[in-house]
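task queued by scheduler; priority normal; single chain, no ligands, no partner chains; default sampling; output format set to C-alpha cells
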Amino acid sequence: MLATEMLREITRDIADVSSASSALLLRELIKLYQKGVPKTSDVINSLEKFINTAMVERRLAEANMAAALLRRLQWLVIDEERSVVNLRGSEQVIIYDLSQLGSTYLKTMYALAILTRTYYEALGNGLTNRLTTLLVAEEGQNYVRARRFDEPATIGERLVNEMRSFGVGVVMVSPDPVQVPWHMARDVAAVVCFGVQAAPDFVGDALKMLPRPPRLGEAIIYHNGRIKTARPPKRPPKTLDLKTETREEPIEESAETEEVMTHTPKQEEDVQTTQAMVESSGALEEAQRGMVCN
C-alpha cells in the first residue's frame, strides 16, 4: 500500500485528488509500466479508453472519476513538449532548476519527487547523527505548505521532518514564515531572516534582547536561544572551484509503451501483488457507491 499512499499524498497536494481516484490512477499506471516506461500522453490515452469502457458498461461513477483525473493531468502534457538538457559537472553538487516551469503544479510535483527520492536514498543508508547531505529548498512554501492546526501534515512536510534522522539537513528558503508550517520555524536549528517583517513571532519577541534595533540590510540570526545581527560581506566570497569540467547532456526520451520490458519473476510477483492490493483496497467500491471526484 506504500505506492498507493505516496501517489495519493502527492496528487492530493498538487491537484486535490481523492483516495479513490488515486487508486484508479495507480491501477492504470501498473498496466502501462508492464509494457514499458509510459509518457504522459500514454497515461492520458489510457484514461480516455477507460472512460469509454466505463460509459459502455454504465459505470458512471468511475467514468466521472477518470474524467476528473484527465482534467488534473492535462497540464503535464505541456511539460512533455519542453526540451530538457542536463548540465553535468561535479557529483558533489546537484542543482534541480525548476524556474523554467511555467506551472506551479509542475514545480510542486517535481519538487516532491526530488524530496521523495532523497528521503528513500537516505533511508537506505540507515539512521545516523552525521550530516551526509545538505538540501537547499528554494521557494519551499510551494511544496512544504502552511496548514491549519487541525489539518494533517502534507507529504512534503513529513518528508522534511524525517530526513534529519537519516543525515539529511534541509535549508528552507521562503519569503515569509507564514507560508510554511507553523511548527517548522520552531523546530529548526537556526533562523536567518532579512528584515523584522520576515521574522517569525518568537524571533520578533527575542528582538528585545538586542542592544539596538536591526539596521537596514542587516540579517537577523537566531540560534541556540540567542539572537544577533550581521551584515553581509562587502565583497562576495571566493567562488568555490570544484575542479570539474561541465558538459551538456540531452535527456533521453522514454521508451514507447509498445516496447515490452523484460521482467524478472520477482518483478512480476511484485506487480501482481500490488494489483491485488489495489483491487482489494475497496477504494473503487466506494466510487461505485456514488463517490464522484469533481
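post-processing summary
- The beta strands are 85-88, 133-137, 168-172, 190-194, 219-223, 226-230, 247-250.
- The first strand starts at residue 85 and ends at 88.
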